[in-house]
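With this grant's support, we have settled on a layout for protein records. One resulting record is reproduced below.
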Amino acid sequence: MTIAVVGIGLIGGSLMIDLRKRGFADKIIGVDTNLHHQNIALLCGLVDENDTLENAIDKSDLIILSSPVNANCTILPSVLDRIAGSPKIVTDMGSTKASIAEISKNHPGRGRYVAVHPMAGTEYSGPLAAIGKLFDYKTAIICDKELSDRDALKKVEKMLDILNMRKVYMNSNDHDVHVAYVSHISHITSFSLALSVLEKEQEEHNILALAGGGFESTVRLAKSNGDTWAPIFLENSQFILEVMDTYIEKMNLFRKMISEKDMNGLKALMEEANKIRKILN
């Protein structure tokens, strides 16, 4: 098995580590427009070689798109053009799916594409952020599986099994709704909190010295790369705006209870929120 990984960052690099170590990939070809990323990947042994997208497609059995979601949308049609009628397979690791589903749905090579979102990551980016076992026991969402050829789906499912991932199936639209609520809003609130604190820090230089574990865990995601997350927010803007409106509504409820010094109201809101334990435990 020769695989090409397009986008040598946290996700692409972490895939390279485990797919090689666990015997899924015999040869790994890296594709990245960033020369620095190419050199790091080669020096660290993440890839066997770097090449152009076209050459990597021609040399590979499986092409994995792990670039920002807007770049994946641009790249996928040209990959499908090149592999249509062959046994080659392409999959993507993007965290939005509706746009890429729309772009690919009428392509004659659509069956060779399997849409995947691994629910895994850290706040760091680039090939130096790549780590082994990143995907172990995490969830992988496979979207629109009925549109993928059976052999292509089975091969990608085997890859996810080797990564020790739990597979969940849904359509692209449902996927984007769900991740807006459980993933994308978390990043927006973290960025917002960081901006609020940094603004206050300009006036009171000791505020960050008082930051404890609660602040650190809440704001951790604000260290995430804007090149990755700005395209995600725009690609999934419809559902993100919906969840932001809901979030603001809940924030205003807390604001109202606090301004009215309503102890019972505050406790009732927090007790309702405590029900999340049943889901997360």
User: Anything to note?
Assistant: The chain has two domains: 2-171, 175-280. Residues 172-201 form the longest helix (30 residues). The first strand starts at residue 2 and ends at 6.
